[in-house]
Design a protein that fits this description.
Order of helices and strands: HHHHEHEHEEHEHEEEEHEE
Length: about 250
Amino acid sequence: MSEVKAWWKPFYEDLFGGVQLIGGEFTKRRQADAALVATRLALAPGSRVLDIPCGNGRIANELAAQGHSVTGIDFNPVVLENAREEAQSRGLSVTYEQGDMRALDAHEQFDAALCFWGSFGYFSDEDNAAFVASVARSLAPGGRFLIDTPAADSLPSVFRSKYWNWVDEQKRLRLLEENNYDPYTGRGQTQWTLIGPDVFVERESSIRLYTVRELNELFQRCGFARVEAYNGHEDGPYSMLSRRLLLVGWKAG
C-alpha cells in the first residue's frame, strides 16, 4: 500500500483541532465513556493504563480520577498542555508525553491500553500494524488493548454521505461531514467543514476501515492471543447493525 498523507497534522494542529475543547455532547459524556472503557478493559483498582492518542485528556483524566495510574501520549503539544492543565486543576497525577504512537519505547509497562473515539486506522496498513505491535510490547502479559472505531462490516447500514452537527451548546458552530468510501484501499475519506461567526475551516481525514476478521488477524499477528468485538458504546456483541465497534485484544499471559 502506498504511503498515507499525514492528514492528522493540519487536522489537529490548527483551530479545527480545538473542536473537542468547545463543549457539547462530546465533552458531556466523558464520564460515561471512561466508565465504559474501565468496564471493557476490566480495570482492577490502581491499574497502569496507556491512553494513546490521548488528545486533551478527556478519558485519561477521568480514569485518573477513578484511581488508575495513567499515561497519555499524543503528537500534539497543544492538546497535551490542555490535558496537563486540567489534570492539575483537578488535583490529578497523570503522565503526559509527546510521541509517535507507532514507536512506543515501553516494555511490559502497562496493564491496559486504549485508542478511543476513532483514532485507529490513521496510517497505512503497515504502520497500523506497527502501532498494534508497539502497544502489545508495552503491555504486561495478560494486558488488554481497546480500540473504538467504525468497522467496514456495518458500513452499508450506517453510512451517510453528508450530515451536519452542532458543535457547541449555543449553536454557533456547525460541522459538516461529507463522506466517501474507497473499496480499493478500504479507507473512509471525510471532508470536514467548520462554520460559525468569523470561522470557516476545511480539513480532510482518511481512516482505514477494517472488518472484524481483519482486525482479529492483525491483533493475533501482533501478539494478542484473542479478541472480543462489542456493539460500540452499547451492550452486547458487535453485529452488522452496530454503529461502532469496540474491540478488545488480550495479550498472551
